[in-house]
Amino acid sequence: MFRTIKRMIGKSTVSVLLQQHFNGHEPHSLVTTGRTYPTASRVDVQLALEELFAEAHPVSRYGLHAPHHAGFDALGVALLMERTPFPIDIGPLQYDDIDIGEALPAKCVRQALWLSKEQGVPYSVLLGRGGPMGMPGVHVEVAVPSGEAGLRLTETFFDRLDKRVSAGRTYRGKVISLESGADFTGRTATVKVHRLRPVARDEVILPEKTIALLDSNLSGFIGVRTRIRAMGLSAKKGLLFYGPPGTGKTHTLHYLASTLPNHTTLLITAEQVVMLEQYFKLARFLQPSVIVVEDVDLIARERTNMHDAGAEMLLNKLLNEMDGLREDAEVIFILTTNRPDQLEPALASRPGRIDQAIEFPLPDEIGRAKLARLYARGLTLGDDVVATIVAKTPGASAAFIKELMRRSAQFVLQQGSSSVITPAAIDAAIQEMVMLGGAFNLKLLGAEAVEARKATTMTIVEMA
């Protein structure tokens, strides 16, 4: 049995290939240097390597077949050259389709080995997924013979690679979040690109003081950020959007994501907070960037309201990551919440975390009139009908007005006789939303009924 095992433990084809390439250099004399790039840089790393090796001569590329590799650590040249019962062999190049927000996906090789020479010095470059201890990322490892020439080659190679990866920026100016697995198309969905509907400036219906704060703390700040940083002041900015549900916080985020020049927006939802460290690394890599944490009260609740150590660990992680960014980092934090009274005071107690809180209130009469006209979506809406809507919806949220107009349009279109929204259509929509749906439906739509009257002129929300 011992002889059988001994025969099984042999050299793989890739091991033989490496020894032939490094002819005259024993495996123990090789020096390897690895670098792990953020997951979102996978396409840029692939393109950068292809550019570098397009300039090299001679060069050979091989796919790697590692069916028994557990994946707890990234592949390395040392592992390729080991004598093992489960060797890693040469195989076909295997590609993943990566969604980059364009019409066609990008194709990235899963694992590959390049062999080349530069000024007579042989070297190999290994590309694979994952980093040390199974951390997510894109791992590149360069192997060279020991000595000064090999050291210079490695430094030069990574310097050229870093510049190309940083200049590529596949996701520059896009809205992304980190995912896992594959999407319904079968494409690799490690990074999800959100295709948000463009929101124009006149579609952001907010009070003038809210608009002024947004302009001052975002476009105004970005316009002078370079000079602020040159003065030795912090280039970071932290904003807190707060207000009742349905008042336009997420809608405004969509507007900002489409208007902030060259900024990559990273969306962090409640279930993704465990990846905070990866998000902040990505924000540094893709800066200038915007980190959006929606419903931040779920992870930054006041400590006295926390019921387990895990919740406090997430809060501390958020605070530490925000504090850990360099002062010259061009990163903007935008945190949103419907419950500002439940936030941990430490979140806003130190400059550099939250610099400005911006309230998103329920729309006033002027705001509700603008919202009604905005969401009429091309249907005719007379001033008298707008006045009726305004009169019947005090205390309603922007989300409620949007749904009211959608249902009113539905009634008009079902009748098929006109493209004019009538008072009857408004009454029918309110009847369905308020009277038939009940108080719970009203809450879902972004309004709370203190008293609902059955008269046709009823007020759906009355403020105490």
The arrangement of helices and strands along the chain is: HHEHEHEEEEEEHEEHHEHEHEHEEHHHHH
Number of helices, where a helix is a run of at least 4 consecutive DSSP H or I residues? 15
Can you give the mean pLDDT? Answer: 81
Shape: elongated
**Rg, Å, rounded:** 29 Å
Number of strands: 15
Distance between the termini: 86 Å
Strand content: 15-25%
Assembly annotation = single chain
* Uncertain spans: 1-10, 184-188, 448-464
Largest sheet: 7 strands, mixed
Would you tell me the structural class of the helices and strands? alpha/beta
Estimate the helix proportion, in percent: 25-40%
Strand order across the largest sheet: 10-9-12-13-14-11-15
What does this structure look like?
Helix 3 (42-54) packs across helix 5 (148-168), helix 6 runs parallel beside helix 7 (219-230) and helix 13 crosses helix 14 (423-436). The protein is elongated. The model is unreliable at 1-10, 184-188 and 448-464 (pLDDT under 50). Strand 6 (112-118) and strand 7 form a beta hairpin. It has helices at residues 2-8, 13-21, 42-54, 77-80, 148-168, 208-217, 219-230, 249-259, 276-285, 309-324, 365-374, 383-392, 398-415, 423-436, 438-444, and strands spanning 30-37, 59-65, 89-91, 95-98, 106-109, 112-118, 121-129, 138-145, 175-178, 191-193, 237-242, 264-268, 289-293, 331-337, 356-359. The protein is α/β, with parallel strands linked by helices. Strands 10-9-12-13-14-11-15 form a seven-stranded mixed sheet, with helices on both faces. A six-stranded antiparallel sheet has the order 1-8-7-6-2-3. The chain has a two-stranded antiparallel sheet with strand order 4-5. The protein contains 15 helices and 15 strands. 37% of the residues lie in helices and 18% in strands.
